[in-house]
Amino acid sequence: MRQISMAVLVSLVAVAVFTSVHSTADNPKDAEARTENKLVGTWKQVSGKFNGQEFRPPAGTTLIKHVTPTQFMFVDYDKEGKVTDAFGGPYTLKADKYEETPVYGVGDFHGLKGKTQSFTWKVEGNKWHHSGTLSSGATIEEVWERVEKVEKK
């Protein structure tokens, strides 16, 4: 897998934050939606199926998804903290439908750049379940767990 520098990751996060801030500043309804959006936060993938088969990332790999009121960013990194894949872009929520469109990233985009990916979703407690069929035709089922703030000791 290709390793990506921290500078590239920081740049991607900056793009996501910049886009999110500028896309919500002009619409007061977005502020109202933010308070009801159960997905805003940071999530760690705890299980997944790809085309009906259990998916296990390489040992020591962590998969994280950051969700703002208007943008998502997915990143995976190894046990040494080196990013191996990252992408993000806008998303929408309507009832039980979650749609994300990767528009920027590094590493393996999986042929998804610029294509809207549609899922059904629900949050139960601190778990986010989503499933759907990617634009490539592959099916996925994922469970993400909310990352809680860790207090420094």
Q: Features of this protein?
A:
alpha+beta; Lipocalin
What is the fold's blueprint, element by element?
Blueprint lengths: L5 H19 L3 H9 L4 E10 L2 E2 L7 E6 L3 E7 L5 E12 L2 E4 L3 E3 L10 E8 L2 E7 L5 E8 L7
Antiparallel strand pairs: 1-2, 1-3, 1-10, 3-4, 4-5, 5-6, 5-7, 6-8, 8-9, 9-10
Can you offer a commentary on this structure?
With 153 residues, the chain is of the alpha+beta class. The chain has a single domain, classed as Lipocalin (Beta Barrel). It has 2 helices and 10 strands, in the order ααββββββββββ. It has an 8-stranded antiparallel beta barrel. The N and C termini lie far apart (35 Å). The model is unreliable at 1-34 (pLDDT under 50).
Please state the CA-atom Rg, rounded to the nearest Å.
Answer: 15 Å
Can you give the helix content as a percent range?
10-25%
Order of helices and strands: HHEEEEEEEEEE
> Could you give a short account of the major beta sheet?
8 strands, antiparallel, barrel
Number of strands: 10
Shape: globular
Number of helices: 2
Q: What's the multimeric state? A: single chain
Number of domains: 1
Strand adjacency order, main sheet = 1-3-4-5-6-8-9-10
Q: What is the level-2 CATH architecture name?
A: Beta Barrel
Question: Which regions contain 5 or more consecutive residues with pLDDT less than 50?
Answer: 1-34
Structural class: alpha+beta
